[in-house]
Batch of 2 targets.
Target 1
Amino acid sequence: MSEVVSTRVSTYSRELRERFVTALRGVSEYQVIKFELCDESGTWHVGETVETPKITGDSHSQIMAELESDVIGLITGKEISEAIRSIEESNLTGSTKAAVDIALNSVIGKGVRQGFSIATDVTIPITSIENLPALVADRVAAGFTYFKVKANNEPTADLIAKLQLIEELTPSGSHIRIDANQAWDFGHTAEVLAAISDSGLVIDYLEQPTPARDFAALAKVKAISLIPIMADESCFTPADLTELIALNAMDLVNLKLLKAGGLTIAREMANTAAAAGIGVYIGSMMEGDQSLSAAASLASEVAPELVHDLDASWWAKESDLRYESGRLYL
Ligand SMILES: [Mg+2]
């Protein structure tokens, strides 16, 4: 049985090829926090996290403080399964838990795997309609055929015009998903759904149209929608998942390691969701290669046939990961 012998924390910065803009935030460069732990054989295992205060509420300084102090006492000298449990049961932020849990899963062979590929969409950020042709051309040239279009609280006619243009600009057989990142209320969502229906546009799914904690609004949307509804920011914890299932508030869920607090809980949530007939997709924040690789490994474990949301490293100016024909290769 392996034990955690020591830990270390470092950071590196990641620059994006272009600004990533959603209804919640805009980002061009960010710090990746790298957490490593050494097992008894002297092997170092890596986990990563980032701050996403607008989404998780966890700040860089808080995560660093937790990794550099609290975590050491919780896992040092402990056997791995005990360390995993003690992180899971702690009051640490989800972003901190994720970094530690990814590294701990690596020790027991349930972390990042190599030698596989997984299909992913690519994000089209919020931008003006004039900028769309160049943005879409870049993504089509890179081989993507699934496009996640970030929406804002723009007039419905403007959104429809954008979606129609994207459909024209992408190869036939391409797929469009919409992610409103909580920007709409129920009334606006109903208006958009009706307009999509009238337009004849084919949309894979609509992700998180309404505010995160308003589960009733999401359930109302699902009740009227002909398009599958996905929960993202509404679903952080196993308790959220259980409540969303009970309310019949979603068809699909976007699980992320930084929301769930790592692989252990995300894996459990994926099983719970699948057992309830919910389609499980794995996504990520704008993260580093290591935590994205952990997310991709989970995606290929729980839903290898689906097209996930794992384009974060495509956005990075520098990455060791390879994207080809809409797939991420590890
Ligand atoms: Mg989302």
Target 2
Amino acid sequence: MIKSLIVYYSLGGNTEVVANKIEEKLTSLGKEFDVLSLGKKSKFESVDIENYDIVFIGSPTYKEGKTPLYVLDYLRYILNTIILNYLNSLYLEQGIRNGHTLQEQLMKYLITLVKKQR
Ligand SMILES: Cc1cc2nc3c(=O)[nH]c(=O)nc-3n(C[C@H](O)[C@H](O)[C@H](O)COP(=O)(O)O)c2cc1C
């Protein structure tokens, strides 16, 4: 059966309300899901994203359009997992010196994008 993961960070409760709505909908459809609330005590490394077919990620926006660090850290974490596990056939044709794998290059690029959010 298709299994979903609902991930969210909520400071004031609005994003949690939306996450709860998604939970209600999935429950009414008889779907399996887990919920991961991001924050100081979150142990997101213990939740294996590969166990899920669908991942919902919810985040508020603060400080003139910024995404909270808890969410950015999670995005970075799952991007790393996705790149390592799903894009492992990327290859880079290059000389021997100063080589980086294409995965490393892609990760660097994605981290730059995530950092721009800060
Ligand atoms: C102090 C503060 C700053 C905010 N800054 C932004 C912002 O820069 N851009 C934006 O679109 N929304 C901003 N918002 C709106 C929040 O993103 C919105 O209220 C969101 O639903 C809060 O989610 P939460 O209750 O789950 O924390 C801000 C809200 C607060 C209270």
